[in-house]
Amino acid sequence: MPLRSDWSSATCPIARSADVLADPWVLLILRELFSGRTRFDELRDATGAADSVLARRLTAMTEAALVERVEPGAARSPYRLTAAGRETLPILHAYARFSRATDPDGPWGLTVSCARCGEVALSADWCSRCDASLDADTTLWARRSMGDVPFSLAGDRA
Amino acid sequence: MPLRSDWSSATCPIARSADVLADPWVLLILRELFSGRTRFDELRDATGAADSVLARRLTAMTEAALVERVEPGAARSPYRLTAAGRETLPILHAYARFSRATDPDGPWGLTVSCARCGEVALSADWCSRCDASLDADTTLWARRSMGDVPFSLAGDRA
After folding, report:
1. Which helix H or strand E contains B140, and what residues bound it?
2. B17 to A95: CB separation less than 8 angstroms, yes or no
C-alpha cells in the first residue's frame, strides 16, 4: 500500500525508496523506533501523530518490511525495526545534516556520534576519524528531549 | 506553505527539514534540477507529475528557498537550485543508497561517483578514497535514462 503514487517498480533508486520513506510521519516514526520506543501509544505520544495517521504509516512500513511486530498475532504487540528498517538510518541523518548545514545556529536537539571513537558525525553514514561506515550498530544519538544522554540505537537483535 | 503539517519551527533537525523535503515529488524535482532540467515543461515530462502537483511543489520549494527563478518576474523563467537547494544532495543519495542496500540486484538506473577520483560512491556524502566530502561540486551522476554518461551536477553558479 503506497502512501501516494506507486513507484515500487521504478528503476531510479531515489524514486523506488521514496515510495514509502519520503513521508514526514514515517521519518518521525523511524526516529522513535531507533530511540527505543516500540509501542503504538509511545509512538503516538512521541510523534504527535493522530491514531489514524500512525496506523496507516505502520501498515505501510510493515508491508514494506521496514518494521515487524515483536509478537506477530498479538493485537498490542510492540513494533521493531527489521534489518531493512535499520538501513534507513542514513536517510534520517541526511535530513538532520541538511537542517544543520542550512541553519547552523538552529536549536538542534539531536547529536549524532560514532560509538567507536566518540566523534560527532557530520556525514550521514561515515566516520572520517575511524574511516569506517556509520550504521545502526556503530552510531550513538543524544536527544535533548531525552536528557541529552548518548544512547545506542535500538536493534532487531531482540 | 508546508505540504502537510508545519514543522518549520521543530527543534528536531529531522522534523525541521522533513517539512518540505520528505515528499516523493520534491525529491524527483530535485533529481531533475541536479540533472540540468530547469523548465516547467521539462520537469513535468521528466518526473511524470501533473501540472498542479508540480506547481504546488515548486511554490513550496521556492518559499523554502530551495529553488529560485532564473529571471524573477518572467512567467516562463526556468528554475535553478539555490545554495540551500544544493545541500539536499545527500538526502537524494541516502534514498538511492537505501534501495541498493536492500535490493543489491535491482535494476538501478543511477550511478553516483566522485568527480575527483572517479570512485563509485557508496556513502551519501563522503568519498572514502579522497577522504573528503562529496557535494554538488564534487559529484558526478550517470543515469541510464540519459545514456549512462557521467555528468557534473547543475549548479547555482550561472
Report:
1. strand B139-143
2. yes
Q: Where are the alpha helices (DSSP H) in A64-137?
A: 83-86, 89-102
Mean pLDDT for the stretch of residues B148-154: 93
The C-alpha cell that represents A34 in the structure block: 531507533
Q: Which residue has the higher pLDDT, B19 or B114?
A: B114
Cell of residue A30, nine digits? 523511524
Q: Select from A52, A53, A54 the least CA-distant residue to A42.
A: A54
Note whether B28 contacts A14, CB cutoff 8 Å: yes
The phi and psi torsions of A81 (rounded to 5 degrees) equal: -70, 140
CA angle (A31, A36, A154) in 5-degree steps: 90
Q: Do B128 and A131 touch (CB under 8 A)?
A: yes
With beta carbons less than 8 A apart as the criterion, state whether B157 and B55 touch. no
ipTM given for this complex: 0.94
Question: What grid cell was written down for B104?
Answer: 543489491
Nearest one of A26, A86, A97, A28 to A58, comparing CA atoms: A26
Nearest neighbour of A11 by CB, restricted to B4, B100, B144: B144
